[in-house]
Each structure stands twice: as structure tokens, then as C-alpha cells.
Amino acid sequence: MADERFFVSGALGCIGAWVVRNLVRDGIPTTVFDLGSDPHRLRLIMSDDELARVRFVVGDIADLDALQAALADSQASHIVHLAGLQLPFCKADPPLGAKVNVLGTVHVFEAAKRLGLRQIAYASTAAVYGFSEEYPEGLLGHDAPLKPHSHYGVYKQANEGTAHVYYRDDGIRSVGLRPYVVYGPGRDQGMTSSPTKAMLAAAQGQPFHIPFGGRFDLQFADDVARAFIRAARTPFDGAEVFNLRGSVVRIAELVAAIEAAQPAAKGLISFDDKPLGFPEEMDNTPLIEALGELPYTSLQAGVDQTITTFKTALADKRLSV
């Protein structure tokens, strides 16, 4: 670890913020490359002293020259590529979504190739899969057929293909991870951000309606971030994409966990019966075989930590009601 330097794209997002927090607390020099300049998600989970140890570079992932210059200047040994627009934004503006998600990922691989970096960890998504009725019941393997039904899922599928071609043609190794429903401090946008928003509402003593139900896989943001860091650090010969797995629960179990963490919120959180429609359980066995056992935070512990963080941030004005 002594010679490690990390370059993190999209670090102002939820998973990126947790990646940066973990790296800084491990004493790893970290360069953040992001088009945005507001570190409010980082401030939610990091102290000012920790933030001061991060090197911020404002830049557009769609600008290859700027990206390559920042990557070279960082002297990075590891890359975690998380920059991208989420599903609702890709739906609202497909050309921009393709520019950021697809072209941006090509640029990361190309910059790494030009600078002699040989491995990348990057974010794909469970949205590369189709609807649950399109697959047999049971655990969904990471090699199941990809059947995306959104621009976002199609763009991420293209990125998985990009990674394979850069490995075949140029020897750039990569590990892609497919998060599903990520929750925790900093998860404030995207189609599946409602569980986290419900936890914030509970911390505020406000009602909230989760617009879906059913059974699905909830993944704590800190666990997801640690998996990306492990994927960047672990030598891997190939270009593979793996499923992540957290706590597979019904929406009523999530609400019960919120009420256990914040008893005053009992009766304030409601939900729809309509499920998300995607496969409920992802098989992460191949990921563990490739990277080793990964950190896992139980649902109750993750909800407790999230609500505690929100209450502290509301009290000291880092979050407003």
C-alpha cells in the first residue's frame, strides 16, 4: 500500500464518496476527477481534515485530453471509474447519457492504455439484465443473458463490451461490478434512491412513500465502495463483470429496520406493492472467488448507521430539512 495512488472518476457521487473516504482513512493519496465541484456527499461522511487530503481536479470525462492529463499528473497506480449519469438522466437526455457513460468509459480505458496502466475497476449495473420474468427462478448468475430495457442499461452493456475489447486488443485488465439497490448516506438521486430517502425522512420525523415494493437486494454504500477498491487492488487477468450482493429483503423488512433505528418514525414510511421487476437475487460467488471474501454490513447495522449519520448532519447543518 505504501506506493499506491488512486485516481477516482465520478467521486462526487454516492459510491465515489465512500470510495474516497475509505482510501483517505487508509492513508492512500487520492485524486478525484469530476465535472462537478460540490463535495456535499463527501462532507456528509468525511471531516474537513480528511477532505483536505484529497486532490480535486474538475474535468469532463468526455474530454480525453483533460482526463489523460489529470491521470498522468496524479501518478496513479490504480483507477476506480465511477463517472456516469444514472438511469433517469439517461432517459431524459439519451445523447448526453451516451456521451458521459459510453464515450467517457472509452476515454478512461484509452487514457490508461496510453499511460501504461494495466488494470481498471469500473461500475456497471444490474440494469444490464432484463425483467425477472425473463429469467429462471433462483440466483441470477453473472453470466446470465443481458437484456437491458433502458438507455442506461444499454450504455452499461456497451461499457462491458468496451472493457473486453481493450483486454483482447491491448491487455488492459478490468473488473466491472454490477450494483443493484445501493443505500446509505449520499444516495440522494436515481431510480432506487427511495430507501435512503425514507431513512432521511425518518431522521427528520417526516412521512415518506417508497414508490415500489417486493423483494430485492439492498447493498450498503460502504460495502460497495470497499468492493470497488478491492477490485482495483487485486491482480486479475481478464475483463470480467461480477454481480454484487447485499441483504435480500422485502420492502416491509426494510421499513421495520427503519422503525427499529428510529422508533419515532413508526407509521411514517409507506410503500407500494408493485415490485421493481428486476431479478431479486444476484449470485456473487464468482466475485468472491476472484477477490476473496468482501465486507458485509447487515441491513439493520446499515440502516442504523445511515440514520445516525443523517441525524448528526441535520443537527450540525450539513443537511437541511
Overview features:
seven-stranded parallel sheet; single chain; 321 residues; alpha/beta; Rossmann fold; three-stranded mixed sheet
Description:
- With 321 residues, this protein is an alpha/beta fold.
- It has a single domain (6-315), classed as 3-Layer(aba) Sandwich (Rossmann fold), CATH 3.40.50.
- The protein is built from twelve helices and twelve strands.
- The chain has helices at 14-25, 40-45, 48-51, 64-74, 87-92, 94-115, 151-170, 194-204, 221-233, 251-261, 285-291, 299-315; strands spanning 6-9, 30-34, 54-58, 78-81, 119-123, 173-178, 181-183, 208-210, 215-220, 239-243, 247-250, 269-271.
- It has a seven-stranded parallel beta sheet with strand order 3-2-1-4-5-6-10, with helices on both faces. Strands 7-9-11 form a three-stranded mixed beta sheet.
- Strand 1, helix 1 (14-25) and strand 2 form a beta-alpha-beta unit.
Brief write-up:
By secondary structure, this protein is of the alpha/beta class.
Count helical runs: 12
Which strand order do you get reading across the main beta sheet? 3-2-1-4-5-6-10
Instruction: State the domain count.
Output: 1
Order of helices and strands: EHEHHEHEHHEHEEHEEHEEHEHH
Strand portion: 15-25%
Q: What share of the residues lie within helices? A: 40-55%
User: What is the molecular shape?
Assistant: globular
CATH C-level category = Alpha Beta
* CATH homologous superfamily heading: NAD(P)-binding Rossmann-like Domain
Q: Biggest β-sheet: count, sense, barrel?
A: 7 strands, parallel
According to DSSP, the number of beta strands is: 12
Radius of gyration: 19 Å
